[in-house]
Task: inverse folding
């Protein structure tokens, strides 16, 4: 496999509003297996950021450990990245966000990283409504250590070794909704049309945006009998909604009339086309029951599952000043000599 | 040999209070200690308490010392026992010829009597029942009543206590007069029933000067506010919790945006210690000064993250208020037993910088310094205190702050600097001091982005498993920590004017007992040179001190002589030269514990 990627950008390649080509949003060459679902998700992240004309240096991309956590090296080369320790990306992202609330935080994790070793950190980042986009590249197995079942592997799903999984699988979306995530979506790495707008809307959402992406492991979990193989996910994918992200108000034209438009906090819109009438994306109870029904029918619900537009994110919840804390100077941080002298006096 | 306790009893004695925890005794006992401090006499107070909220025995020990010795002292001159659970043991612990104050509402069992001590029975409960009506007040005022009795017995002026009470209950005159009544009742009972004052007692002095009284954790929290910490993540654990409460208190007072009233800081109580250190690292990576505070069990959990911060070169400040381990150990007892773990935390080859304050004043100063050092070296910096320093109030020098002080934010490149920097690499040693230049996210649209990782990387921060590259980076880290050593507070010498063959090394809260021991040894004709360590890795002076003495005693409060191990390991000195002087029973070390292991 080649480790060199051409840096040349064709002068006539299309540019976004900032004058950057799509290539400017790419990363280094992936070292994942050929055909890995994760690479498609990386490409969807690149598309979303390019199309939204995000300034790459205003993004911090963070991950834990595992195949999925390697991917931040494969997108957004002009962003700072942080490949932390296994299962601990949520805490690093929380600290980073507290230090500078003005950046876009994009976390990438896997099912081992978020549903097992980092289960606790995931849960608490969700309940604090940390303002970040959190993508789990979910393949139901441990790829880097050669294919052990993960905690999201479905009960009875057959691994490459031919053994059915003994235990219940964790439904990350249902979990995130229960824990108080304010944006929850599910998608499939092979469905870029659905995934790209979901990522855009997630980035735009203020609060914890969670996207669980079924991302088959071509090497260790793509066999017959696995419920996370390409074939299985394609056959059992039940789209709840199709979605379009409308970046600014002005772009809403007559063509959207009659559609279900969801207004976001900053005046942007989500155009939601509900394909299934049995749920309401603002109603927790209906989506939890829809997920349970789908589970019983061996279906994977995809699309935007839940959104709370009145979301209040962590920094607002704890009343932190609007100015990023990492820009505060001595004058704002140090109470000074006179205060100290008064304190001394009160301690005598 | 001559013991200090054979000398005059004026301003030189120990009072111990035996209480039940959760009965409000702490404020009465503190009031007693503070009143002596206000009379200008050096005093030190120590809480000896269980890992429990209500109902178990707790003790409070006050040492009064004309000479200013603030360490714990063996031998109890006066015991105030209001806890029937521990009464028998409490009576046994009084020094021969000493005194016991007890609640004589119920008579003392025959078996408890001792012929060699004085029993001063005061019917505390009976008087309280007669004089006060509210049940909770009865319990609280019973404590104030024995303070009144002590005041009479020890010649402490009631006016001094009255001033303290009116400061404490500012604006609540009713409470002041209620407390004064209880105080007077105790005092009157002594006046009518016993000989007073006792042979040992308090005499007004001017020895306290401008000293203040504060506990180490409060000073540490304040130091973090002054040091510019703006992100704090933490998980509750005794005895470190009050570091955070202190930061929170002072930050709410002094760190509000004057216009919006919003916080110029953020504090997050995390789900565990792993997360606490993770957040602090994330915030520091992003350019805010952040810290966490914990104790031994938390430090164990933080090991993995400390390795990441060391290897990916992220500053972070961590306070470890040490307690007795291993495992849960004795959570409310003191020890200095996390030294080895702190020095080499995490798997693989690592070495961490730590600072060791001895007093609350140093907690304040060193905590602020920790941020400057961490940001300069881009690596974890720990401050190791202990329960004795952290949770007990100490008489200490007033806090000072240089008005011209500027935070040293280390090598962080601005957008302009990035424009000019030729061939920047995140992990390049461009200055020859082992410290590279870092960049913060969001600084420059096209320059300075890099990938932070705990996996091996080259000078440009690219993933690399190339052996020579790995070795180069690992060797540079050694060089970097050497550079860091120069930034640490220097060790201090004590009694080094006259050269001796015997050396004594100590650190942290052993300071109090060690200096007293050295003075006492000197008074008996044994001269000992001493050095107080204040940081790790060791500076040159420590090696010289060891070289210059034939035998060096290393005083520490742990079982395995961990500082001695560090000295042997780091300075490669002959182990036979370093003698252990230890106390690891969970109580603060005393001068006599040291003397007994030297002589």
Result:
């Amino acid at each position: 496999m080649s480790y060199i990627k051409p840096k040349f950008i064709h002068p006539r390649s299309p540019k976004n509003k900032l004058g950057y080509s799509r290539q400017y949003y790419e990363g280094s060459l992936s070292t994942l297996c050929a055909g890995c679902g994760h690479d498609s998700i990386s490409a969807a992240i690149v598309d979303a950021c390019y199309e939204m004309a995000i300034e790459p240096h205003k993004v911090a991309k963070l991950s834990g450990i595992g195949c999925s956590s390697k991917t931040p090296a494969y997108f957004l080369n002009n962003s700072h990245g942080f490949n932390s320790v296994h299962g601990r990306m949520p805490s690093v992202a929380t600290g980073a966000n507290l230090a500078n609330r003005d950046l876009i935080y994009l976390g990438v994790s896997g099912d081992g990283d978020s549903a097992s070793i980092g289960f606790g950190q995931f849960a608490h980042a969700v309940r604090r409504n940390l303002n970040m986009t959190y993508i789990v590249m979910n393949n139901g197995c441990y790829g880097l250590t050669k294919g052990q079942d993960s905690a999201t592997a479905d009960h009875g799903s057959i691994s490459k070794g031919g053994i059915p999984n003994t235990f219940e699988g964790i439904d990350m979306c249902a979990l995130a909704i229960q824990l108080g995530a304010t944006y929850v979506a599910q998608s499939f790495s092979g469905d870029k049309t659905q995934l790209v707008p979901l990522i855009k809307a997630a980035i735009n959402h203020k609060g914890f945006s969670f996207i669980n992406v079924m991302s088959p492991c071509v090497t260790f979990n793509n066999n017959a009998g696995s419920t996370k193989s390409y074939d299985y996910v394609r056959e059992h994918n039940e789209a709840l909604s199709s979605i379009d992200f409308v970046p600014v108000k002005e772009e809403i034209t007559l063509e959207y009339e009659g559609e279900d438009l969801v207004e976001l906090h900053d005046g942007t819109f989500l155009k939601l086309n509900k394909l299934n009438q049995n749920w309401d994306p603002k109603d927790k109870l209906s989506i939890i029951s829809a997920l349970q029904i789908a589970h019983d029918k061996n279906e994977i619900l995809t699309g935007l599952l839940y959104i709370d537009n009145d979301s209040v994110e962590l920094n607002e919840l704890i009343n932190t000043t609007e100015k990023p804390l990492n820009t505060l100077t001595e004058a704002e941080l140090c109470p000074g000599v006179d205060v100290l002298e008064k304190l001394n006096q009160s301690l005598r | 040999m001559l013991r200090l306790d054979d000398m005059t009893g004026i301003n030189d004695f120990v009072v111990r209070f035996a209480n039940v925890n959760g009965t409000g005794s702490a404020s009465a006992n503190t009031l007693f200690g503070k009143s002596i401090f206000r009379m200008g006499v050096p005093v030190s107070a120590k809480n000896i308490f269980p890992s429990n909220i209500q109902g178990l025995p707790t003790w409070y020990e006050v040492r009064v010392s004309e000479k200013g010795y603030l360490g714990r002292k063996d031998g109890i001159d006066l015991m105030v026992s209001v806890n029937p659970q521990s009464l028998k043991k409490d009576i046994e612990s009084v020094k021969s010829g000493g005194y016991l104050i007890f609640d004589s509402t119920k008579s003392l069992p025959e078996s408890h009597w001792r012929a060699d001590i004085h029993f001063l029975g005061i019917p505390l409960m009976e008087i309280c029942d007669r004089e006060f009506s509210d049940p909770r007040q009865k319990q609280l005022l019973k404590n104030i009543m024995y303070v009144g009795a002590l005041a009479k017995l020890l010649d402490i002026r009631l006016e001094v206590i009255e001033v303290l009470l009116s400061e404490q209950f500012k604006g609540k005159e009713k409470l002041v007069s209620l407390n004064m009544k209880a105080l007077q009742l105790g005092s009157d009972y002594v006046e009518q029933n016993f000989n007073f004052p006792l042979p040992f007692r308090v005499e007004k002095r001017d020895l306290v000067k401008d000293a203040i009284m504060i506990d180490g954790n409060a000073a540490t929290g304040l130091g973090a506010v002054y040091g510019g910490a703006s992100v704090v993540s933490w998980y509750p654990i005794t005895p470190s919790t009050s570091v955070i409460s202190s930061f929170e208190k002072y930050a709410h007072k002094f760190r509000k945006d004057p216009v919006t009233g919003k916080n110029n800081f953020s504090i997050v109580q995390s789900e565990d210690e792993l997360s606490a250190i993770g957040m602090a690292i994330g915030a520091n990576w992003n350019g805010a000064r952040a810290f966490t505070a914990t104790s031994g069990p938390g430090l164990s959990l933080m090991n993995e993250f400390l390795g990441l911060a060391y290897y990916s070169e992220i500053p972070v400040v961590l306070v470890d208020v040490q307690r007795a381990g291993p495992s849960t150990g004795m959570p409310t007892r003191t020890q200095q037993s996390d030294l080895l773990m702190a020095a080499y935390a995490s798997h693989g080859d690592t070495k961490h910088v730590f600072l060791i304050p001895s007093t609350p004043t140093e907690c304040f100063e060193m905590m602020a310094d920790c941020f400057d050092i961490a940001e300069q070296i881009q690596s974890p910096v720990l401050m190791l205190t202990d329960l004795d320093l952290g949770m007990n109030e100490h008489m200490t020098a007033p806090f000072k702050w240089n008005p011209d002080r500027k935070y040293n934010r280390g090598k962080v490149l601005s957008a302009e600097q990035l424009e000019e920097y030729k061939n920047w690499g995140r992990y390049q040693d461009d200055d020859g001091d082992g410290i590279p230049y870092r960049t913060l996210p969001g600084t420059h649209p096209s320059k300075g982005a890099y990938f932070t990782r705990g996996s091996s990387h080259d000078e440009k921060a690219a993933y690399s498993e190339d052996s020579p590259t790995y070795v180069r980076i690992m060797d540079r880290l050694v060089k970097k920590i050497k550079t860091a050593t120069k930034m640490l507070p220097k060790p201090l010498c004590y009694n080094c004017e006259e050269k001796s063959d015997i050396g004594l090394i100590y650190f942290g809260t052993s300071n109090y007992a060690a200096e007293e021991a050295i003075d006492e040894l000197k008074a008996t004709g044994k001269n000992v040179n001493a050095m107080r360590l204040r940081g790790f890795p060791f500076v040159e002076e420590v090696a010289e001190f060891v070289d210059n003495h034939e035998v060096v005693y290393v005083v520490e409060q742990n079982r395995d002589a961990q500082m001695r191990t560090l000295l042997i390991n780091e300075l490669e000195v002959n182990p036979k030269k370093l003698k252990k002087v230890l106390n690891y029973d969970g109580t603060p070390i005393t001068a006599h514990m040291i003397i007994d292991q030297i002589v």
Summary: The longest strand of chain B covers residues 94-103. Confidence is low (pLDDT under 50) at residues 1-7 of chain B. The CA atoms of residues 562 and 572 of chain B lie 15 Å apart. The domain at 492-598 of chain B is CATH 3.40.50.920 (Rossmann fold).
